[in-house]
Design a protein that fits this description.
alpha/beta, Aminopeptidase, six-stranded mixed β-sheet, two-stranded antiparallel sheet, disordered N terminus, hydrolase, Pyroglutamyl-peptidase I, Peptidase_C15, EC 3.4.19.3
Amino acid sequence: MSLLTARHLRWMIMSFTHETPTVLLTGFEPFGDDEHNPSATVADAAARALLGSGVQVVSAVLPCEFATSHEVLFDLIAHHEPEVVICLGLAAGRSQVGVEQVGINLQQARISDNAGCQPNGTPVVVGGPDGIFATLPARRIVSAAGELPVELSLSAGTFVCNHVFYALMHAVEIGAWGEHSPKSAGFVHVPWDTDVSTVYPGIPLAESVAGVCHVVEETLKHLSDPDAPEADTTQGAGLGTLH
């Protein structure tokens, strides 16, 4: 666990309902010339770390394809009915776990996805709003991060990460799953895993896992007590890397 003890997390879970809340964590398959994508590894490792605290966590890997990534995600949500959905993606070049605040209705790919698709200025959802905010308590998460490498980010890019992020938030906004829609959802970028390669700037896998566990813990804490006063966000709240 990162900041909260397992006992504290179990107490928060009890305040929801008599049922155990479900959290869905997703990462992506490798793309481009890379044979490894740390987002999938972090999602799996964080899920295993959180399972021991009484949280029902499901991890899955999404295809790095514009056409199918959101479809796979939506099927997972329909099947598992999670209270929290956090999609993870790789941000090579960053050195902190970035909690994304807004997805934009734009697909602009510098390289082709794994299906050979390379959109150039097309919307994620035709007729959708220009941007949609995550419902994760992003500033609360960052302000409570302490020594963990967690920051706010104002850009999820315009590749498949942002595609999934925007599609998810649009579906939540229109109530695509009715009463079973996630109560909190968003996107988190993780740095490159320096345990695998030092070609890109990054951090060790364990630090990304701790950061993602913290994101889950603070989200559950916020859902169990949404009226708690907002923590001070003037300290330690970076703005992430715009790209």
